[in-house]
Design goal:
Blueprint (H helix, E strand, L loop, with lengths): L1 E4 L2 E4 L5 H15 L3 H12 L6 H17 L3 H14 L3 H17 L3 H18 L2 H17 L3 H17 L3 H17 L3 H17 L3 H17 L3 H18 L5 H14 L3 H18 L2 H17 L3 H18 L2 H17 L3 H15 L5 H14 L3 H19 L5 H8 L2 H9 L8
Antiparallel strand pairs: 1-2
Amino acid sequence: MSDTITSGQFSLVGVSAAAIKAFREGRLAAREQAYDKAVRYYSDALAFAGTPAIFQSRLFEYRGQCYWLLGEFELAEKDYQTSLATSDSLDQTARARVRLGELADFRGHYEEAEKLYQQALQEGLSAENLLVIGRARRGLGVLYRRQGNTDTAVSHLTQSLAAFRQAAEAREQGRVLTSLGRTRQARGEYQHALNAHHEAFKILESVNDRWRMVQALNDIGECHQALYDIETALNYHQQALQQATEVKAELLIPEIKRNLGIDLVEMGQYEPGLVYLRAALEGAHDIGNHEHEALALYNLARAYLRYEDYGLAEQAVTALANIAEMLNADRYRALAAFVRGELLFYQGEKAAALAELNSAMLAAQTSVDRGTLWKLHAAMSHATDNQNIAAVHLTIAADFIRQTAEPIQDPKLKSCFVYAPPVLAVLHAANIDPDKL
């Protein structure tokens, strides 16, 4: 007997009917996002003695993925490693290795993840396994985005999407579109990002992947947030939190709560916003996601600055700088230096502030999004006493704002952005009419 699974073909010859039944029940439970139930079925299937190595290896891989989605990272890693050791085929070895890469990436072990993805990609190409090729390229795309190399990131992600389309893998296409959307957002290309996230949502909805639909809702809201369409952002993030709670998408809750905190602070609801931001920080710490810890700390620091809680802001910045060094990531070094520079400026230490902002600028050149860059240049225009240099920074900030605004297709969304007080202040200072953008 053989069986074709949408995520790859393998033979079920030599597998008992009872083991096959447990395996298929596990697959069904996983598709329904009942991951704890799927773990039990896969464990039942693994309990049968004498099954072929390929069957055992695939079961360990599938069970590991369920553990990962449940936040049981040690168990997930153990199953992925066992899948790798059990495998007797290059095809399955590559599958297990790319899963290990995803786990390393999530934990912030980026160098390890890159090595795993590169090896998996070579194995996938040798085995002509489109699924592995697509996953490895997606992983590399995400890593290059984190490093600020967004051109290479887009290249890998576009090739990943082509592989999954060739393989007719709808769910994986949705995942790649989510990554493409996040990469476009990292470039400040919010219209492209929104298009990708909406397409991802439609695909994921068509396969009833409620877990990743939550992710798409959160990301759509984040784009609106970046463009100061805060009411729309809040609506998406509230939907995302409700659905994440319903489907027990625990890994996604910290970043959703972070976004809800940002939304509420922007709307002037400081205390409720802080509750969400602190919960986001705690949740990210609990699941061991250092990137989301860093983002929560950055936004907490900015919220504290906004309401002149300078002592708490300093604590958040120090913690953020420590995580940036742990991750060895210029993006977070830039964010830490940026917010520390703002803190020093508000405290009247202009020379020290300018030095920090210059450090932020050096780290930010290729590692942060356009939305952060215009704010950084605007801050530098205030910190310097040299009017000519200030004018240069204002011109650059305004140019980044123009590049952000011009592609936006929705007139209401575009208006939300260009007439947001921080944006309008830069445009007025640069003598630019917002209606001309």
